[in-house]
Amino acid sequence: MKPVIALVGRTNVGKSTLFNRLTRSRDAIVADVAGLTRDRHYGQGRLGGHEYIVVDTGGFEPDAGSGIYREMARQTAQAIAEADTVIFVVDVRAGLSAQDHDIAVYLRRLGKPCVLAGNKAEGMQESALLAEFYELGLGEVHPVSAAHGQGVRSLLEAALEPLALAAPGEDDAQAGEADTIRMAVAGRPNVGKSTLINAWLGEERLVAFDLPGTTRDAIRVPFEQQGQKYELIDTAGLRKRGKVFEAVEKFSVVKTLRAIESAHVVVLLLDATQGVTDQDAHVAGYILESGRAVVVAVNKWDAVDEYQREQLHRSIENRLAFMKFATIHFISAARRQGIGALWPSIREAYQAATCKMPTPVLTRVLLESVQFQTPKRSGGSRPKPRYAHQGGMNPPVIVVHGNLLEHLTDAYKRFLEGRFRKQFKLVGTPLRLEFRTSKNPYVDRNGP
């Protein structure tokens, strides 16, 4: 098995920067803001021919009393329990703090292998400032600069040295990625995205707190359900552009949009107590523009009465009319009601988004549709669709060829879309039709 390394330390010492360096990615948000990382964040790394898993954590306060910092401490404690070794990151330039002492006492009590990394030590390898960190009782201090990559390799070798390194096998994650469904849970802030994923997992894997904007990064969690592998992606809540003020929140929005684009299926989560808002329509519109398959889940269904439920049904029909192809579920993530029914719809949406449509079948459906209802005339001529073929997947793209197709009405295009959807059972995925008109070979000929 791949060894697991947890990055631990107080806020703003550079854990996320080191995480990005060890995974050779930009998966963790990095900014000069204390307390930015809040959830456990997993990533893959490689040293030579060996692979490992890195866990980024939030600022650790072992004795945090209450609130969001207590939840962050629980996440970090869980990451340490899962890890084979711990890299304790301290800030050389800020010096030793009382919180560093508290974390060191906690780690020594556990007795887990631990390596001390003195970050932000560019040009300070021989500095006397490193000496004070030896009083933490965790052995040698490894001076590194996560931002510039200095000393990171030797730090990683020291962390992996006591472990049996796992050589990459043919049955590794790369071989399984093709069978993994990437699924993002998206919605506006505080609708219960993290609570839903925690309910699926059966553990407090993500920080769920009654505070809008608790999740700031796109957190990826591997999961298996009935033999199908998934990668669950919890995203930061999306607001309207005009309401995004903090620089950190702008980074979070970018990560969320990228997570939606990289997913196969998106679960759009709505809040039953607030109805379908402009923000919900904004998020739904972006999912549609990205071409992702989608399942709509209305959370907190247990908190509304019959009248509110009836109003919500109407609101969905009116404000999300452009997503009629999506299956809708009414759930309560906190009570774990109805969440199991989402899985068949997610698999159905994925299969529809990635289905293969043979050209003969597409052409037959097209010609039968034309025979059933011919297009309206434009001037003295009538558009003539002749054949169709598949132009892409996720989302499915159907390319229709013929003459004068630029004159097809929007109503007729919707009619064709409905016929194709019915034939191939395309539920939960947008469908894009492209119309290509054949060039008239006589249009440029001179008269006799």
TrEMBL record:
Record GO terms (molecular function): GTP binding; ribosome binding
Residues the entry annotates as binding GTP 2: 187-194, 234-238, 299-302
Record gene name: der
Organism of this sequence: Comamonas flocculans
Keywords: GTP-binding, Nucleotide-binding, Repeat, Ribosome biogenesis
Protein task: GTPase that plays an essential role in the late steps of ribosome biogenesis.
Gene3D superfamilies: 3.30.300.20, P-loop containing nucleotide triphosphate hydrolases (3.40.50.300)
Domain EngA-type G stretches: 3-167, 181-354
Keyword GTP-binding among UniProt keywords: yes
Signal peptide region: none
Protein name: GTPase Der
